[in-house]
Amino acid sequence: MKRQRWLIPVVLLTVGLMGVACGDDDTPTVDGGSTDSTTAKPTFAAGTTMAALQAKGKIVVGTKFDQPGLGQKNPLTSDVEGFDPEIAKIIAAGIFGGSPEDAGSKIEFKETTSPNRELFIENGTVDLVAATYTINDARKQRIDFAGPYYVAHQDIMVKADNNTIKSVADLAGKRVCSVRNSTPAGRIRTMVPDADLQEFDTYTLCKEELLNGRTDAVTTDDAILLGFASENPTALKVVGNQFSTEPYGIGLKRGDEAFRTFINDLLEQSYSNGQWKAAFDKTLGKSGVAAPTPPPVDRYTSAGPATSSTAPGETTTTTAEATTTTAEATTTTAA
Amino acid sequence: MDVVLDNLDLYLLGIRDTVVLTVVSFALAFLVGVVVAGFRVSPVPPLRAAGAFYVNTFRNTPLALLFFLFYFGFPKMGIGFSAFTWAIIVLTVYTGTFVAETVRAGINSVARGQGEAARALGLSFPQTLGVVVLPQAIRTVVQPLGSIFVALIRNSALATIISVANLSKTADQISTDTVQFVPVYLGVAVAYLLLTLPSGLAVGFLERKFAIKR
């Protein structure tokens, strides 16, 4: 975070030097698709995270600020735009009532980068994280995940005129760029130990390195790469060799079962009532990709609260009451 | 704790990389610093101005910003080196300013009569500085130079942001693969102490060895 803050002007300067026009940020016209089925302010059992957030009137969401289509801060309007913020708005609507658009005003977006997401959740800097956050077992030991709400695949982006790198195996001996402390970087270290892995703080810097010719490939989730490639289709392309499955989840404090169930219910509800598809079409769908079938929510058994001192037990009975406000969505999503 | 022991080989590699970065940069920064200190006390105004410009520019800029500007800026003007070379250059340029000011303070602490006597004997300015003044000046600033060295060990961690291998980057990697941040970073803290504490002791030894007996 400390590095990121001054990094923004530097990145802007670099981009400015190149004379690259920033993506067209036409202000989105009022979207008629948002049917607000949950106009009434929901009520929650006392003591739940939902009730606490509702009383506070604000929810702090960690997301990425530098990923086109997924989570990007618009430098002109200071709005955070992308699929992750849209999902956060759906969750906010479930807590505060109203449509996702209206509930957006209750969200304070905080920038999280791949290295600091677990920490921000654990120390309460953010209430939840929606930041291209891959669900995996190592992370489940520190935090809990609701969702997944999207499945990405790790892929490779190269310069448009590069015809030698076609699959992950071709990366051996090549310079590959990814972000520090991220899943894709770790995977490259194990899959292609021969690759010369370069790690920076943001994917924007990796893209710069690729355009400068100081790296041969950028690797991370296809959703992120497609965002960059669609910004600059003449210079960059995505190889299309999907070599992993990255289910994106909502990162939550470990052991908050009521909150997790609540968000899982909300996600399933958004699959069936069209909110999820609207969120996709408005962001990632802009590149021309049709909305995929949303992934089924995984209600795995949590390892329990992070601090073993608090005994799990009686308090979990509030779970049932907490979820009564959201219509129990049927799992419409077949794989 | 197991995380640290299991990855001991990676820690050792990280220590090696940090030592290389630090020692090479300090050797170069020492040369740069002494020359610039000479500029700053020279009788030639343009040299004095150039020395002051260098010190004021780079001492007052955040080190992380220098890493970014050098690594991402210069290649746009067609000047390209490897990331490691840039790390050495940036650390040298930054640390050189502190060495220069420290050495200049040492020069000013040498009694005026020493320089005057040298010139009375017919020595030129470079000779006066090199043979008479600097040897006395540097002895008096061994301790502050040691502090600069220790600071450099820690500053070299910032090379991580341009993806140059060092102890901090090792910690990043291990923590990514294990998601055990606290033990991994505690291990790194210990590793840095293993470098910095002996450095401090060595500086104390050097200071006593070179002390001017008056």
Task: Give the tags.
heterodimer; A: 335 residues; alpha/beta; 5-stranded mixed β-sheet; 3-stranded parallel β-sheet; 12 helices; 13 strands; 18% strand; disordered C terminus; B: 214 residues; mainly alpha; MetI-like fold; 10 helices
Structure description:
Chain A is of the alpha/beta class and 335 residues long. Helix content of chain A is 33%, strand content 18%. Chain A has twelve helices and 13 strands. The radius of gyration of chain A is 20 Å and the shape is globular. Mean pLDDT of chain A is 79; it is low at 19-38 and 308-335. With 214 residues, chain B is mainly alpha-helical. Chain B has a single domain (2-210), classed as MetI-like fold (Orthogonal Bundle), CATH 1.10.3720. Chain B has helices at residues 2-6, 8-41, 45-59, 63-73, 83-109, 112-120, 125-140, 142-155, 167-178, 181-210. In chain B, helix 8 (142-155) runs antiparallel to helix 10. Chain B is flat, with a radius of gyration of 20 Å. Chain B starts with a helix and ends with a helix. Chain A binds chain B through residues 3, 6-7, 10, 14, 17-18, 115, 118-119, 138-139, 141-142, 180-183, 185-186, 189, 198-201, 205, 208, 212, 214, and chain B through 62, 64-65, 68-69, 72-73, 75-76, 80, 83, 160-163, 169, 172-173, 175-179, 181.
In short:
The complex is a heterodimer of chains A (335) and B (214). By secondary structure, chain A is an alpha/beta fold.
